[in-house]
Amino acid sequence: MTNYFVLAGILIVVIGFALRLNPMLVVTVAALATGLIAGKGPIEIVSLLGKAFNDNRAIAIVWIVLPVIGLLERYGLKERAAATIRRFKAATAGRLLILYLLFRQATAALGLNSIAGHPQTVRPLVAPMALAAAEQQHGGIEDESAEEVKAFAAATDNVGNFFGEDIFIAIGSIVLIQSTLATYGYRLAPLDLAVWAIPTAIAAFLIHSFRLLRLDRRLRRRRK
Amino acid sequence: MITIQWAYSLAGLMFGGFAIFSAFDRSNRKRLGNAAFWGLMALSLLAGSWLGDFGNGLLVLALAVIGGFGLMGRGAPVTTNEGERLTWAHQLGDRLYLPALVIPAVALAGTIAYKYTPLGSLGWIEPQRETFIFLCLGSLLAVGVLFAWLRPPLSAPLQEGRRLIDAIGWAVVLPQMLAALGVVFAAAGVGDVIGGGARYVIPEGSVFLTVLVFALGMVLFTMIMGNAFAAFPVMAAAIGVPLLVQTYHGNPAVIGAIGMLAGFCGTLMTPMAANFNVVPAALLELKDRSGVIKAQIGTALPLLAVNILLIYFLAFPR
Question: Is the pLDDT of residue B140 over 80?
Answer without folding.
Answer: yes
